[in-house]
Design brief:
alpha/beta; Rossmann fold; 3 domains; six-stranded parallel sheet; globular
Length: 428
């Protein structure tokens, strides 16, 4: 453990074995997990609030849970397990709230092919998660000759009817959040960060970077009140981009509504043995070779399996052409990390379709984690009682062996290992 939140801290630096207050490493671990889950939960609430939507129960839960982590407030391991699962329940509710707000405001996404090259002319590239910010930018750039491109978690925006109607929303550049330093240096365009996943910029582009909302980095210009006029004028001053062909065309926009419209086909394909298993492979990507596991896993998935995916973890493999099974795509992109509720909705609907429990479906979740929203989503899955989840490429550092054992015993949580060996176990 490592805790330095109060005056009692050992040696004035940090309690590392047991707290001076008396809390052990397992309590410290569960407190940390709760705080990280609340951070993730707050992201969903923030974007819901942007759209004028909130929930009294969630708003009351967040300070209650934070209060429980104060020094000398609670030392009960069972209380903190329950509080973490409650945080998962609130995350689930917040994701539903945000998704319903997106549907109401922007329509229900439908599959769309997205170009990955550039168009001739001025350009603005956006990264983050805020559909509200993108909508306001699209309104203000319409008719100006400035094209808008998405990056990373903004890719799924192309599937929403009320966003893709703007013809100057022309494509997606780059992959997951961590490629931005090279990508943004190589592309002479204005860059706007809408939320988390922004890095401290390189000299090559820091004068072209704007931040909105909670995003902020030294020397970047700040956008207030969704007024993009300065950024648009800046984009028009830059040397126009040339026409370039992208390496791949990406497909996104598979809402749960679209997937479940194929319910009869899916049931027939499963019953006849044409579909043997479903995998949800996605999450929050991180740099490094550990993430190669997920591409290898998808590449080795048998042709009678379906891959559902979401969040920026999909960029490890979303350039692959996996074909289809009787018209059912084998690779189905459900959207942002903010769209994890769509995967839950599909799992619940499939369980109803086959008249079984979710844990009895031929479905395995293989998740990558990087930051706090991924932890919040995991807690929401545990709240639902979903078992047999694989998590990688590394376990969260704050989880103690005892806490991990509790998760193993109650939810059969597993860590990823060798992609081919894991695949064999999952398929029995």
């Amino acid at each position: 453990m490592f805790c330095y939140q109060c005056e009692q801290t050992k040696g004035g630096t940090g309690c590392t074995t047991v707290g001076i207050c008396g809390k052990n490493e397992d309590i410290a671990s569960l407190q940390d997990n709760l705080i990280y889950t609340l951070k993730g939960l707050s992201a969903y609430v923030y974007h819901s609030n942007e759209l004028g939507v909130n929930d009294k129960e969630i708003d009351e839960f967040i300070p209650e849970a934070l209060y429980a982590t104060l020094t000398n407030s609670n030392f009960d391991l069972n209380d903190f397990v329950a509080m973490n699962l409650r945080a998962g329940e609130m995350t689930l509710k917040a994701m539903k709230m945000l998704k319903e707000a997106h549907f109401k405001k922007y329509g229900i996404p439908t599959p769309v092919q997205v170009q990955t090259g550039t168009k001739a002319g001025a350009g603005i590239l956006v990264t983050g998660h805020s559909l509200k910010a993108l909508e306001e930018l699209l309104k203000q750039t319409e008719g100006t000759g400035v094209n808008v491109y998405t990056h990373s978690e903004m890719l799924p925006a192309h599937g929403y009817p009320e966003l893709k109607k703007y013809k100057h929303l022309v494509g997606n550049l780059g992959k997951a959040w961590f490629d931005q330093k090279k990508l943004w240096s190589d592309n002479e365009m204005v860059l706007i960060a809408f939320g988390n996943c922004v890095l401290i910029p390189k000299e090559a582009y820091k004068d072209r970077l704007y931040c909105l909302g909670i995003a902020g980095v030294p020397e970047a210009k700040k956008i207030n009140g969704f007024d993009f006029s300065e950024a648009i004028a800046h984009a028009k001053r830059l040397k126009p981009l040339s026409e370039t062909k992208g390496d791949v065309v990406l497909t996104t926009g598979f809402s749960s509504n679209v997937v479940l419209s194929l319910a009869d086909k899916i049931k027939e394909a499963v019953t006849s043995g044409k579909i043997k298993h479903f995998f949800l492979v996605g999450g929050c990507d991180a740099p490094g070779k550990g993430g190669e596991y997920f591409r290898e896993f998808v590449q080795n998935a048998p042709k009678d399996t379906i891959i559902l995916t979401l969040a920026c973890g999909k960029y490890r493999f979303n350039d692959l052409d996996l074909g289809d099974i009787d018209g059912i795509p084998r690779l189905i992109d459900l959207g942002q990390c903010n769209d994890a509720i769509e995967a839950v909705n599909i799992a619940v609907a499939l369980a109803e379709l086959f008249e079984c429990e979710v844990n009895d479906l031929p479905l395995t979740l293989v998740l990558s984690w990087m930051e706090q929203k991924a932890v919040a989503i995991l807690m929401s899955l545990f709240h639902l009682g979903i078992k047999g989840i694989y998590l990688g490429p590394k376990p969260p550092a704050w989880i103690t062996p005892n806490v991990f054992k509790v998760l193993q015993d109650n939810f059969d949580l597993r860590l990823t290992g060798d992609a081919k060996e894991d695949m064999a176990v999952m398929l029995g």
